[in-house]
Amino acid sequence: MTHDTEWYYNLVTGQVEQHEGGKAVDRLGPYATRQEAEQALVHAQERNEEWENDPRWNDDEDEDGDDEDHYGTSAFDTFKP
User: Fold this and answer.
1) What is the number of domains present in the chain?
2) Which domain holds residue 40?
3) Residue 44 CB: number of other CB atoms within 10 A?
4) CA distance 77 to 20
5) Residue 60, in any domain of the structure
6) Is residue 74 included in any domain, yes or no?
7) What is the pLDDT along the chain (81 residues), one digit of tens a residue?
């Protein structure tokens, strides 16, 4: 895709626009067609539902079943006072 064939859905305005539109943080895309960009929220909702129902992921409970975070420490923890 080139910039003149890219379409975006603007989350602030609710409008479909091309490359020279709003700020990137406010947009979904790029999409190949205007019609795809018009359906951006529908596609995002479908993906969210797929991820929420994916049996490979379960954010409610960790592997040992105690529902606690086990992230450990990072190098940045060394610099904390």
Assistant:
1) 1
2) 1-55
3) 13
4) 42
5) no
6) no
7) 666 789 999 999 999 999 888 899 999 999 999 999 999 999 999 999 998 888 887 666 555 555 555 566 665 565 555
